[in-house]
C-alpha cells in the first residue's frame, strides 16, 4: 500500500508540486538578483551626475563586465546553455537526443549566465532560456523520483515530462499559467497529448502562484496581481471604429516580425562566414559580446543619444510606461500631471513624442536582433514584446492626435487609449516572431485585463497570417541556422529508406535447434512469427534460451541416450501453442513517410514496428532507426547520411538488426 501511494505521488502530484515550487523559487531569485543589479546600475549613473565622462564609463563598463562574465562562464561550464534553448527543446521533443542539454551543469550555467545577462540592462529576454531551465529541472527531478516510479525509463514518458517543464517555464516566468501552457504547446509540440494538459496547468498555476506570493512577501507588490497591471476603463475600452487601426497594427507587426527574424538570421549567418574577422572573433570569444554591448550601451547613454530614445529605461520600466493610461501627445509641452512616474523619460523639450517613439522602435529593433546573437543565455520574447508595445503606442498616439476629442458613436464619445494600442502591438509582434496566437492570452494575463482581448486576437491572427507567409518562426530559423537534427515537414523520406531489411523471424517450420541458436545469438526479447517463409502473420514471441533446453542433469548411465534424445527433439519443429503470442503487432507499409512514422511512434508510444508488403514481412523499424533518420535529415528533407543510405547496401545489411 505504501509503495503504491509513493508510486502515485512520484508519478504525478509530488513531481508536479516539486517542479512548480523549484521553478518559482528559481524565477523569483533570478528576478530579485537581476533587479538589484539594475538598481546598482542606475544608482551609479545617478551618483555620477554632472561628470559626463565618468557617467559614460560607468554606463558602458557595467554591462560589458556582466555580459562577458555570462559568456565566459557558460563557455567554461556548459556551452549548451548559450542562446534561448527552445529550438533545442523542439528538436529533443521530436525524438532526437542532444547530449548535455538537460544536465545539471547546463542548469547552473543557464541560471547564473541568464541572471547576469538580465542584470546588464541589455535588450535581452528571460522566457526562452527559462523554458530550457524548467525542462532541465523536470529532467533532473524525474531521475530523482525514478526511485518511486519508472517515468524515466519510458522515452515517451520522458517526453511528457519535458512538455510539462516547458509549460512551467513560461508560466512562472511572468506569472501567466494559462498563456504559458498554450505557448509551450505552440512552440515546442508538433502534437500534444491531452493527458498532459492537467499536468501542465496544475504545475504552471502552482508555480505562478508561488512566484507572485514571493513578490508579495518581498513587498514588491501589495497583493497577488498581474506583473504589468493596467487600469484601462472596462465599460467602453474601445470602439468598433478603431478595429481598422488594430488591424493595421496586426498586419504591420506581421511584416516587422518577419523582418526581425530575417535580420537576426542574417547577423548569425554573417558571423558564421569563414572570413578573417569571424575566425578572429571565434578565437577570442569575448570580443564579440563585449563589442556589441559597448555599441548598444553607447547609443542608450542618457546624456547622449539616449535622451532621444528613452535610453535610461530598463526593460520592465519601458513596458510599464508604454502601457500607462496617459495620452502623451496631450501632455507634451505642458506641466506633467501627477502619477506620470517613469513615463516622464519619454518627454524631451525640443523633440516630438512621435520622434522619440520612432527612434526608440528603430534603435531597439536592430539592437534586439543583434544582442540575441551574442553567445550568452538570452531570449527574444521580452525585447520583441517591448518593440511591439512601442509600435502600438506610436499608432495609438497618432490616433489620439487624429481624434483629439475621441470617437463619436451613437451620441457617446470614446476617448482613444494609446496604452491599449501598446498592449495589442506587444501581442501582435511577439505572435508574428514566434508564430503563435497564445501571446494574446499571455498579454491579458500580464496586464490583468481582458478588455482588449477581441482586437488583440484580430491583430495577432493577422500578424501570424502575414509573418508565416514570409519567414519561419524565430525558433525554426535558429534550428535551420544551427543545422539541428530536426524532422522536416516534407514527406519524401519513407520507411523503406531507413528500415532494417534482414529480420530474424520464426515460422511453424522452425526447429528447436534453430530457435536455441537464434536466442543465443540475439539480445532481442521479441521475434516476428510468420506462417511461412513468404507470408507475414507477425506475432510477438517471448522466449528465453532456458525454455528450450532439455534437462540433461541425469545420471551418467543415461547420458548417451539422453543426448541422442535431445538431438532428435532439437530437430523437431517448435510447438507454437506453447509460445506467448501477441496477435496484433503494429505494422507499416514500405511507403509510409518518415513524418507519419514519427507521429505514430510518438502518439502510440511504440518501441518498434514491422514493415510489410502485400502481407510479406520485408523489414522492421525501431526507435533507433527513427532517431538516426531524424538526425540524418537535412533542411530539404531529401538527403540522408551515408549510414542510413547503407541500409540499401546488401554488404552492410549483416550489421543491421537493431530491433531492441
UniProtKB/TrEMBL annotation:
Q: What InterPro entries does the annotation carry? A: CBS_dom (IPR000644), CBS_dom_sf (IPR046342), Cl-channel_core (IPR014743), Cl_channel_volt-gated (IPR050970), ClC (IPR001807)
Q: Which residues form the CBS domain?
A: 495-536
**Segments crossing the lipid bilayer:** 13-35, 56-78, 130-149, 161-185, 197-217, 243-265, 286-305, 346-367, 379-403
Q: What top-level branch of life does the organism fall under?
A: Eukaryota
Q: What is this protein called?
A: Chloride channel, voltage-sensitive 1b
The UniProt entry, under Pfam families, shows:
CBS (PF00571), Voltage_CLC (PF00654)
The question of whether Transmembrane is a record keyword is answered with yes
PANTHER family for the chain:
CHLORIDE CHANNEL PROTEIN 1, CHLORIDE CHANNEL PROTEIN 2
Topology in the membrane? Multi-pass membrane protein
What does the organism's lineage look like at the top? Eukaryota, Metazoa, Chordata, Craniata, Vertebrata
UniProt GO molecular function: voltage-gated chloride channel activity
Q: Which UniProt keywords apply?
A: CBS domain, Chloride, Chloride channel, Ion channel, Ion transport, Membrane, Repeat, Transmembrane, Transmembrane helix, Transport, Voltage-gated channel
Which subcellular locations apply to this protein?
A: Membrane
Signal peptide positions are: none
Acetylation among keywords: no
Name where it mostly resides.
Answer: membrane
According to its record, what are the GO cellular component terms?
A: chloride channel complex; plasma membrane
Amino acid at each position: 500500500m505504501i509503495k503504491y501511494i509513493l508510486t502515485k505521488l512520484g508519478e504525478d502530484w509530488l513531481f508536479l508540486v516539486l517542479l512548480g515550487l523549484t521553478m518559482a523559487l528559481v524565477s523569483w531569485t533570478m528576478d530579485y538578483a537581476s533587479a538589484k543589479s539594475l538598481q546598482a546600475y542606475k544608482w551609479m549613473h545617478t551618483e555620477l551626475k554632472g561628470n559626463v565622462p565618468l557617467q559614460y564609463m560607468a554606463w558602458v563598463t557595467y554591462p560589458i563586465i556582466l555580459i562577458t562574465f555570462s559568456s565566459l562562464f557558460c563557455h567554461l561550464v556548459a556551452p549548451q546553455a548559450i542562446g534561448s534553448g527552445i529550438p533545442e527543446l523542439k528538436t529533443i521533443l521530436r525524438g532526437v537526443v542532444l547530449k548535455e542539454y538537460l544536465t545539471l551543469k547546463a542548469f547552473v550555467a543557464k541560471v547564473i549566465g541568464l541572471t547576469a545577462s538580465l542584470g546588464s540592462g541589455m535588450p535581452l529576454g528571460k522566457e526562452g532560456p527559462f523554458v530550457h531551465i524548467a525542462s532541465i529541472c523536470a529532467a533532473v527531478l524525474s531521475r530523482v523520483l525514478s526511485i518511486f516510479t519508472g517515468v524515466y525509463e519510458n522515452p515517451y514518458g520522458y517526453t511528457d515530462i519535458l512538455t510539462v517543464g516547458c509549460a512551467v517555464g513560461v508560466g512562472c516566468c511572468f506569472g501567466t499559467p494559462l498563456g504559458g501552457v498554450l505557448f509551450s504547446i505552440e512552440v515546442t509540440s508538433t502534437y500534444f497529448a491531452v493527458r498532459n494538459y492537467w499536468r501542465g496547468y496544475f504545475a504552471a498555476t502552482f508555480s505562478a502562484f508561488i512566484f507572485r506570493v514571493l513578490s508579495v512577501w518581498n513587498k514588491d507588490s501589495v497583493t497577488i496581481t498581474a506583473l504589468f497591471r493596467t487600469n484601462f476603463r472596462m465599460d467602453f475600452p474601445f470602439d468598433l471604429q478603431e478595429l481598422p487601426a488594430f488591424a493595421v497594427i496586426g498586419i504591420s507587426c506581421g511584416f516587422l516580425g518577419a523582418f526581425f527574424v530575417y535580420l537576426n538570421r542574417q547577423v548569425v549567418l554573417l558571423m558564421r562566414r569563414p572570413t578573417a574577422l569571424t575566425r578572429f572573433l571565434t578565437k577570442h570569444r569575448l570580443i564579440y559580446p563585449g563589442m556589441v554591448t559597448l555599441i548598444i550601451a553607447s547609443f542608450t547613454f542618457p546624456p547622449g543619444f539616449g535622451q532621444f530614445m528613452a535610453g535610461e529605461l530598463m526593460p520592465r520600466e519601458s513596458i510599464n510606461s508604454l502601457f500607462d493610461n496617459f495620452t502623451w501627445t496631450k501632455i507634451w509641452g505642458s506641466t506633467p500631471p501627477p502619477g506620470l512616474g517613469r513615463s516622464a523619460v519619454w518627454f524631451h523639450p525640443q523633440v516630438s513624442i512621435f520622434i522619440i517613439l520612432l527612434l526608440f522602435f528603430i534603435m531597439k529593433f536592430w539592437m534586439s536582433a543583434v544582442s540575441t546573437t551574442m553567445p550568452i543565455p538570452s531570449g527574444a520574447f521580452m525585447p520583441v514584446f517591448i518593440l511591439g508595445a512601442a509600435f502600438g503606442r506610436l499608432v495609438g498616439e497618432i490616433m489620439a492626435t487624429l481624434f483629439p476629442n475621441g470617437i463619436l458613436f451613437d451620441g457617446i464619445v470614446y476617448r482613444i487609449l494609446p496604452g491599449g494600442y501598446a498592449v495589442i502591438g506587444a501581442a501582435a509582434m511577439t505572435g508574428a516572431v514566434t508564430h503563435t496566437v497564445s501571446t494574446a492570452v499571455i498579454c491579458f494575463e500580464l496586464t490583468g485585463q481582458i478588455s482588449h482581448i477581441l482586437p488583440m486576437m484580430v491583430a495577432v491572427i493577422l500578424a501570424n497570417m502575414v509573418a508565416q507567409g514570409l519567414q519561419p518562426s524565430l525558433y525554426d530559423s535558429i534550428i535551420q541556422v544551427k543545422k539541428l537534427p530536426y524532422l522536416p515537414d516534407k514527406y519524401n523520406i519513407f520507411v523503406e529508406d531507413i528500415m532494417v531489411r534482414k529480420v530474424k523471424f520464426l515460422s511453424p517450420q522452425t526447429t528447436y535447434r534453430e530457435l536455441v541458436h537464434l536466442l543465443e545469438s540475439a539480445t532481442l526479447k521479441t521475434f516476428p512469427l510468420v506462417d511461412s517463409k513468404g507470408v507475414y502473420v507477425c506475432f510477438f514471441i517471448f522466449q528465453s534460451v532456458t525454455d528450450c533446453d532439455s534437462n540433461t542433469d541425469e545420471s551418467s548411465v543415461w547420458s548417451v541416450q539422453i543426448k541422442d534424445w535431445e538431438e532428435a527433439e532439437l530437430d523437431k519443429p517448435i510447438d507454437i501453442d506453447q509460445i506467448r503470442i501477441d496477435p496484433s503487432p503494429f505494422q507499416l507499409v514500405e511507403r509510409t513517410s518518415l513524418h507519419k512514422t514519427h507521429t505514430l511512434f510518438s502518439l502510440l508510444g511504440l518501441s518498434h514496428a514491422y514493415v510489410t508488403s502485400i502481407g510479406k514481412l520485408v523489414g522492421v523499424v525501431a526507435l533507433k532507426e527513427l532517431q538516426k533518420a531524424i538526425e540524418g535529415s537535412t533542411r530539404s528533407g531529401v538527403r540522408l547520411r551515408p549510414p542510413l543510405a547503407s541500409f540499401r547496401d546488401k554488404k552492410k545489411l549483416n550489421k543491421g538488426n537493431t530491433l531492441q
